[in-house]
Structure formats: structure tokens, C-alpha cells
């Protein structure tokens, strides 16, 4: 005999926290990883002097959309970097589509997904301007800065997809104390300044992306010293943050995020000094570019968790009834 649904079933399930799907969480991680990878491949283009491997845009040459054998390895590297844009586009479209049915309940996720999707053509246009201006160092720099912004958005998205609808709109107290939030905010500002000055240092250095590309005509030694100043302050603020999260017995995820941030800052600083004293070997410069991306993500992650209202991560949904609040509602008949 068929059982009828209990009274108030729809009202009960309507109150249950909505969780994101495993697909959405996987796409969020893929978005972050791909945003970092395109920075790495872009660095490979510059460090191998392949910046003008495809001398035209949006075509590779005036007569060919793809690179030709005559263009050699530089054409392959530059065209390969361009192709990665389509991977990012596919991930962004898949994310928007997968969130479509949740666009009203989870406006935060949908807006982040749209922002990331919009950033991809913006980056493509900036890349085109970079080629058409013969690798102008200031344009190249802004190309890199926009990538850092997209990495921040992707990091926030990775964190937001872990929350249920109820957690996303919670008004509970933030995880981090006021002092910790202030210190991490200062650290985030210092990270932004450090990355920006690093871009200027790069524009004055030897790795221009092409033998004939212009430089910004600034003294590289002087700019390196200026670039190092906020790094010292960043290390100090991160160390203070590390002390605070342990002294305040902060939530485990927040504590882990600050520990990770401290490790990344120290590693990135060590790589930066080493590459300077070894006169900028390609391998270390590439590692430093990867480090800048990871540092940006780690900083965004730590600051987000400090100001976030929830630390509890949604479990995998099982038949739509996986949360403790859901089970309690069913038991109590609310």
C-alpha cells in the first residue's frame, strides 16, 4: 500500500538548508586552478620570449587563425596559451549553467560565476592589446593584475559553495576577532601593493617576452628594493596573525588558512630573494609567478574565513535530508 506523505512535508523541506551539488563544488575548484594555470602558462610565454609568437590578434597571423610550422616553438607556446582561454570559458559556462536553478536562492554564487565568466573575454581583449602594442610592459602588467583579481573571485567562490543557503545568509558573529580581521585586512592590502610593485619590477627586468619588446625604463635594482619594503611588513602582519589565531583558539579552518598563508609568504619571499641574487634564472622567475598566484589565493582565503559568518561545511546531501537541522525538523514535526 502506498504511504501518503506526512502533513507539512513541503513546509518542512522548504526550511531545510539548500546545499550545492558536488558538480558545482568541483567546478569552483577547477575555476581556481585554471585561473592560476593561465598565469603560469602566460609566464612561460614571456620567459621563453614567445610573446609575439603569434604576432597578430585575434588571428595568429594575418592569414591564419592557428600557428604555422614556420613560426616554430614560439608560435606553439603562444598559441597554446591562447587555447587555454577556451578551457576557462568552458568551465565558466558550466558553472553558470549548473547554478542556473539556484540563481535566486544563491545570488552570491551566481554573481561570482557571472563575474568570472565576464573576466575571461576581458582578459582576452587585454591579451590582444598586449600583442598589438608589441608587449608594452604596462599593458602586460595590467593583464597580470586582472588575473590576480579573478583568482581572488575564484577563491571566494570555492569558499562560498561550501555553505548552505542558510549559512550564506547567516548573521552570526565572524570567525575572527576584530583585531585579527584588522591585521589580515592590512596583510591583504600589503599583498596587493607587493604584487603591484612586483609587476613594475618585472617591467624593468630582462624577461620582456620578446627580444625587441620595450621596458618601462625604471631602475630594476631600485624598484626591487622598493618592492621588498612591503614584503617585510607583510611577513610581520602574517606572523602577528599566526600568533593571534593560536592565542584566540580560532576555528580550525581559519587557523589552517593562516598557517598556509604564513608558509606561502615565507616561501615566496625566499624565492624572490634567491632569484634576485642568482640574476633572475628562468625557472625561479616562473616559480615566483606561480607563488604570486598562490599567495593571492591564500591571502583571499584567510581574509574570507576571518570575516565569514560560518565555519561549518555542509555534508553531502542524502535524499535531500542530510543536515542536523533537517533531521531535527522531521523529528519535531516542525
Brief account:
The chain has 334 residues and is mostly helical. 69% of the residues lie in helices and 0% in strands.
Strand content: under 5%
**How can the largest sheet be summarized?**
none
Helicity, in percent? 55-70%
Give the CA-based shape: flat
Give the radius of gyration.
23 Å
Q: How many domains comprise the coordinates?
A: 2
Q: Could you give the order of the helices and strands?
A: HHHHHHHHHHH
Q: Briefly note the structural class of the backbone.
A: mainly alpha
Note the gap between the termini.
26 Å
Regions with pLDDT < 50 over 5+ consecutive residues? 1-17, 311-334
Average pLDDT, to the nearest integer? 84
Number of strands: 0
> How many distinct helices?
11
Could you explain the architecture of this structure?
With 334 residues, this protein is mainly α. It has two domains: 21-161, no CATH class; 172-314, no CATH class. The chain is built from eleven helices and no strands. The radius of gyration is 23 Å and the shape is flat. The model is unreliable at 1-17 and 311-334 (pLDDT under 50).
Amino acid at each position: 500500500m502506498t504511504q501518503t506523505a506526512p502533513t507539512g512535508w513541503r513546509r518542512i523541506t522548504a526550511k531545510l538548508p539548500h546545499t550545492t551539488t558536488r558538480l558545482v563544488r568541483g567546478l569552483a575548484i577547477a575555476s581556481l586552478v585554471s585561473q592560476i594555470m593561465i598565469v603560469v602558462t602566460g609566464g612561460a610565454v614571456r620567459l621563453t620570449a614567445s610573446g609575439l609568437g603569434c604576432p597578430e590578434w585575434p588571428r595568429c597571423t594575418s592569414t591564419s587563425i592557428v600557428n604555422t610550422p614556420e613560426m616554430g616553438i614560439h608560435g606553439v607556446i603562444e598559441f597554446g596559451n591562447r587555447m587555454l582561454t577556451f578551457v576557462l570559458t568552458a568551465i565558466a559556462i558550466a558553472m553558470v549553467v549548473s547554478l542556473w536553478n539556484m540563481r535566486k536562492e544563491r545570488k552570491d554564487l551566481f554573481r561570482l560565476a557571472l563575474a568570472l565568466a565576464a573576466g575571461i573575454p576581458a582578459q582576452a581583449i587585454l591579451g590582444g592589446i598586449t600583442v598589438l602594442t608589441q608587449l608594452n610592459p604596462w599593458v602586460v602588467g595590467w593583464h597580470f593584475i586582472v588575473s590576480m583579481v579573478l583568482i581572488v573571485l575564484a577563491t571566494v567562490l570555492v569558499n562560498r559553495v561550501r555553505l548552505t543557503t542558510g549559512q550564506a545568509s547567516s548573521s552570526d558573529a565572524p570567525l575572527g576577532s576584530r583585531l585579527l580581521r584588522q591585521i589580515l585586512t592590512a596583510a591583504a592590502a600589503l599583498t596587493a601593493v607587493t604584487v603591484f610593485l612586483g609587476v613594475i619590477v618585472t617591467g624593468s627586468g630582462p624577461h620582456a617576452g620578446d627580444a625587441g619588446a620595450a621596458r618601462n625604463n625604471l631602475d630594476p635594482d631600485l624598484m626591487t628594493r622598493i618592492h621588498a619594503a612591503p614584503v617585510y611588513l607583510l611577513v610581520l602582519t602574517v606572523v602577528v596573525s599566526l600568533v593571534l589565531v593560536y592565542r584566540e583558539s580560532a576555528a580550525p579552518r581559519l587557523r589552517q588558512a593562516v598557517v598556509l598563508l604564513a608558509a606561502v609568504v615565507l616561501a615566496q619571499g625566499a624565492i624572490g630573494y634567491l632569484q634576485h641574487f642568482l640574476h633572475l634564472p628562468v625557472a625561479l622567475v616562473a616559480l615566483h609567478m606561480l607563488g604570486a598566484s598562490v599567495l593571492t589565493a591564500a591571502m583571499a582565503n584567510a581574509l574570507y574565513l576571518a570575516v565569514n559568518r560560518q565555519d561549518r561545511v555542509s555534508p553531502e546531501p542524502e535524499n535531500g535530508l542530510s543536515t542536523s537541522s533537517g533531521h531535527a525538523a522531521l523529528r519535531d514535526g516542525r
